[in-house]
Design a protein that fits this description.
single chain; 2 domains; binds 3-[O-phosphonopyridoxyl]--amino-benzoic acid
C-alpha cells in the first residue's frame, strides 16, 4: 500500500527565508482584516508593514473581495495574446488617474520583478526603434532592489542577491547609493547629497551616452533599509538623463499607490520618469499583478513605428489577468473613495514625530522617514550582524506588532488606513522591544 503523503513543512521551499529556523518554529497567519493579521491560535497582530509593503488599503476589503469573486464566476481567464477582455483595458485607462501625465500606456505583468524586466526590455526596444540600437547598457545603483529576475538583480545592488548567480546582464554599471548623505536622524529628505546624482554624468563620461539605454532607481529605496533621496537628487538625475537621451525608469513597486501620500513618488517629488514599474498596491495585493507605465513617445516609437505584425516580443500568459484586473479596479475605487493617498499625506507629520521619538533609545543609531514609511537603524551587535534587528522583529511579533527587518534596520510601512492610536501602539511596542534586547 502507498504511504500516505503527510502535510509537511518541508515540502514548501520558502524564498528569502531561513527555512531551517522557520520550520523549527513556524510563524503563520490564517486570517486578516483591516489593520490586523490573526495567528492560528487566534492572536491579533497589528500589521505595521502592509504585508510586504503591498496591502495599502488594509486587509480583506469587501469591495475588492466581491470584485474578485464576481469576476472569477464571470470570466476566469482569457488568453492574453491577440485577444482581450474589457477589464484589463479599463484598468489601464483608469490607472492614468493615478499616474503622472504622459505615462499613458500600461503593460501588464504579474509581479514587481516582471515589471522591472519588462521595463528594461521596453527601454531596449525603444532605443532600437528610435535608431539608437547601440544603447544597450543599463545603469542601476548600489543598494538598489529591483526584484529577482536576472535583469533585476543585474541592475540591483544587493550583494547577497547577486553573488550566487554567476553571469548577470553584461554592460551594467552602478551609481553610488545615497545612504549617509544626510546626518543621522534627518527628518524626511536631507539637504545634502544631490550631487550624488552626478555619478550618472561620470558613468556617461566612462561609457559614452550613446551606449546607455536607461538608468533605473527606486525613488525611495525600500528593501535595503529605507533610503530617502536627498533634496534635488531625483531632479538632477532627471536632468542628466534627459540631456543624454537616457531613459529614466522609476521602480515604484513600493512607492506607488499612496505610500508617500501621493499616487506615485513621481507626483510626490514632481519628477516624471519615462518608464515606471508598479506592482504590490496596484491590486492591494489581493491578486498578483505588476505593470510598466510608459511615456506616450515610447509606445509610439515601439508600437506605431513598427512594421505590421507583433511589435514587442514580450508578454506573459497572465498579463492583465481578469481577477487581477478586477482587483485593481476595485482597489483604485477604494483608494479614491476613502481618499487614502491624501490620508497618508495628512498622517505623515504624526508618523514622523512617532518614529523619531525612538531617537535616544538604546542601540538606535538612525531614524529615517518619508510619507508613511519609517526606518529605525540599530547598531550591529559585535560578531553577529543583523541579530539584534532579528530579535527585535521576533519580540514585536510576540507582542502583537508585525514589523520587517533588513540588515540592521527595522522598517515600518503601515496600511494607509492606520489610526493614530495604532501608530502609537506600533512605535511603542517597537521602542520597548529595542530597549529590551541585548
Ligand atoms: N522592485 C522593488 C522596488 C521592490 O521593492 C520588487 C521590485 C520585486 O517585486 P516582486 O513582486 O517580484 O517581489 C520589489 C519587492 C522587503 C521586501 O521587506 C520588499 C520587496 C519584496 C519582499 C520584501 O523590503 N519588494
Amino acid at each position: 500500500m502507498d504511504t500516505p503523503i503527510v502535510n509537511s513543512l518541508e515540502a514548501f521551499w520558502m524564498g528569502f527565508t531561513n527555512n531551517r529556523a522557520f520550520k523549527a518554529d513556524p510563524r503563520m497567519f490564517v486570517r486578516a482584516k483591516g489593520m490586523h493579521y490573526f495567528t492560528p491560535d487566534g492572536r491579533a497582530v497589528l500589521d505595521a508593514t502592509s504585508g510586504l509593503w503591498c496591502v495599502n488599503a488594509g486587509h480583506g476589503r469587501d469591495k475588492i473581495v466581491a470584485a474578485i469573486a464576481r469576476q472569477a464566476a464571470e470570466l476566469d481567464y482569457a488568453p492574453a495574446f491577440n485577444l482581450g477582455h474589457p477589464l484589463a483595458f479599463e484598468l489601464a485607462s483608469r490607472l492614468r488617474e493615478v499616474l503622472p501625465p504622459g505615462l499613458d500606456h500600461v503593460f501588464f505583468c504579474n509581479s514587481g520583478s516582471e515589471a522591472v524586466d519588462s521595463a528594461l526590455k521596453i527601454a531596449l526596444a525603444y532605443q532600437r526603434a528610435a535608431g539608437q540600437g547601440a544603447r544597450t547598457r543599463f545603469i542601476g545603483r548600489e543598494r538598489g532592489y529591483h526584484g529577482v529576475g536576472f535583469g533585476g538583480i543585474s541592475v540591483g545592488g544587493m550583494v547577497a542577491n547577486r553573488r550566487t548567480f554567476g553571469a548577470l546582464l553584461p554592460g551594467v554599471d552602478h551609481m553610488r547609493h545615497t545612504h549617509g548623505a544626510a546626518a543621522p536622524f534627518t527628518r524626511g529628505q536631507g539637504e545634502t547629497g544631490a550631487e550624488l546624482a552626478d555619478d550618472l554624468e561620470r558613468l556617461v563620461g566612462l561609457h559614452g551616452a550613446e551606449t546607455i539605454a536607461a538608468v533605473i532607481v527606486e525613488p525611495v529605496a525600500g528593501s535595503t533599509g529605507v533610503l530617502v533621496p536627498p533634496k534635488g537628487y531625483l531632479e538632477r538625475l532627471r536632468e542628466i538623463a534627459t540631456r543624454h537621451g537616457i531613459l529614466l525608469i522609476f521602480d515604484e513597486v513600493i512607492t506607488g499607490f499612496g505610500r508617500l501620500g501621493a499616487g506615485t513618488a513621481a507626483e510626490y517629488f514632481g519628477v516624471t520618469p519615462d518608464l515606471m514599474c508598479l506592482a504590490k498596491g496596484i491590486t492591494n495585493a489581493a491578486v498578483p499583478m505588476g505593470a510598466v507605465a510608459a511615456d506616450a513617445r515610447i509606445y509610439d516609437a515601439v508600437v506605431n513605428g513598427a512594421p505590421a505584425g507583433i511589435e514587442l516580443f514580450h508578454g506573459y500568459t497572465y498579463s492583465g489577468h481578469p481577477l487581477a484586473a478586477a482587483a485593481g479596479l476595485a482597489a483604485l475605487e477604494v483608494y479614491a473613495e476613502e481618499g487614502l493617498f491624501a490620508r497618508a499625506a495628512s498622517l505623515a507629520p504624526y508618523w514622523e514625530d512617532a518614529v523619531h521619538s525612538l531617537k535616544g533609545v538604546k542601540h538606535v543609531v538612525d531614524v529615517r522617514n518619508l510619507g508613511l514609511v519609517g526606518a529605525v537603524e540599530l547598531a550591529p551587535r559585535e560578531g553577529a550582524p543583523g541579530a539584534r534587528a532579528a530579535e527585535v522583529f521576533a519580540r514585536c511579533f510576540d507582542a502583537g506588532v508585525l514589523t520587517r527587518y533588513t540588515g540592521e534596520t527595522i522598517a515600518l510601512s503601515p496600511p494607509l488606513i492606520i489610526e493614530k492610536s495604532q501608530i502609537d501602539e506600533a512605535v511603542g511596542v517597537l521602542g520597548a522591544a529595542i530597549a529590551e534586547v541585548a
